[in-house]
Specification:
single chain; Rossmann fold; Tyrosyl-Transfer RNA Synthetase; two-stranded parallel ribbon; 13 helices; about 5% strand; binds adenosine-5'-tetraphosphate
Length: about 325
């Protein structure tokens, strides 16, 4: 019999969602909703691994939910809720903290990036964040996890933890080993100011990213100012090896125009980057600004958004409690 397929993924409510979240995650979420059972979560407990202003956090949870809905997630088709409202996430995270290994966490590159040079000052939560991510996924026995390439390492850790739990408690196949679903074309959208860094909500410069709520003028201005190259666009990818910002613009254009890179290079080679930028800005404006308008409209009715979270929480909690009952039993907790 084919195993039941279940999708789980989450987004942190740490600010405005951007083009990286949209192309790397949200678009994938929406297409998966058509073919599988899906659970999508606003992961507020992950957000607080770095200090968040409480009022801003509350707003950001609703804004992240509004972004889910505006890109096409449907609460009647998918379970949509916020992580802290289902306490099973933290209970399972503790159990998994006791299964996971310090050596595994020490290898996580995102901790090294986010903690910066003074690791002693980073929160313990930031360090053990990947164990909570494993708990998010395994609590529902999810089989597939759509993520951007930046989360691949954390997902591999979730698989290791699932496997170790199954071995430690002698319950082969109890937790499925979750598979990453990484967007094939563009798995990592880079900063518009520095093509070696990923586009990120917490990057100081707003010019580094296109936010889903950006206006037409903001998108035009940001693309115009984006770093590129003073040479003309080449006819092959090799020539872009040392030009990460130019490559990023071409990748984004390829994704948003639904054309593969070869076709884009064919169309653009020999032209100035300003030509590409004008076309790219037009495409982004027509795809992103309707999403931004919808987010703003949805945020006008907070009671409706809260109701969606409440219903999603109830549905998620039923699955979580059922699975937790079995997990507690495996571990020997009464
Ligand atoms: N630049 C990106 N390119 C492709 N995918 C991306 N994702 C994030 N940035 C990019 C994917 O979006 C999903 C949600 O990510 P998140 O917001 O929960 O966490 P993050 O990866 O830490 O995103 P940010 O923007 O960098 O947030 P901050 O600045 O708060 O840490 C994930 O699937 C992620 O892969």
């Amino acid at each position: 019999m084919e195993k039941k397929r279940l999708v789980f993924s989450g987004v942190q409510p740490t600010g405005n969602l951007h083009l990286g979240n949209y192309l790397g995650a949200l678009k994938n979420f929406v297409s998966l909703q058509k073919e599988m059972n899906c659970i999508y979560c606003v992961v507020d407990l992950h957000a607080i691994t770095v200090f968040q202003n409480p009022n801003e956090l509350r707003n950001n949870v609703l804004e992240t939910l509004a972004s889910f809905l505006a890109t096409g997630l449907d609460p009647d088709k998918s379970i949509i809720f916020n992580q802290s409202s289902v306490s099973g996430h933290t209970e399972l995270a503790w159990i998994l903290n006791c299964v996971s290994k310090i050596g595994w966490l020490n290898r996580m590159t995102q901790f090294k990036d986010k903690a910066g040079s003074d690791k002693e000052k980073a929160s313990v939560g930031l360090y053990i964040y990947p164990n909570l991510m494993a708990a998010d996924i395994l609590l529902y026995k999810a089989t597939h996890v759509p993520v951007g390439a930046d989360q691949k390492q954390h997902l591999e850790l979730s698989r290791d933890i699932a496997q170790k739990f199954n071995n430690d408690f002698n319950c082969k196949d109890f937790f499925p080993l979750p598979e990453p679903l990484i967007s094939k074309n563009i798995s990592r959208v880079m900063s518009l100011r520095d093509g070696t860094k990923k586009m990120s909500k917490s990057e100081e410069s707003d010019y580094s990213r296109i936010n889903l709520k950006d206006t037409k003028d903001e998108i035009s201005k940001k693309i115009k100012k984006a770093k590129s190259d003073s040479n003309q666009i080449p006819d092959n990818l090799k020539d872009l090896d040392t030009k990460p910002e130019a490559l990023n613009l071409i990748n984004i254009y390829s994704e948003i125009s639904n054309n593969n890179i070869e076709k884009v290079l064919n169309e653009m080679s020999g032209k100035e980057y300003s030509f590409l930028k004008t076309k790219l800005a037009d495409l982004l404006i027509s795809e992103i600004t309707p999403v931004g308008k919808e987010i703003k409209k949805l945020l006008g009715d907070k009671a409706h958004l809260e109701q969606i979270l409440q219903k999603g929480k109830e549905k998620a909690n039923i699955i979580a409690e059922e699975n937790l009952k079995n997990i507690r039993e495996k571990v020997g907790l009464i």
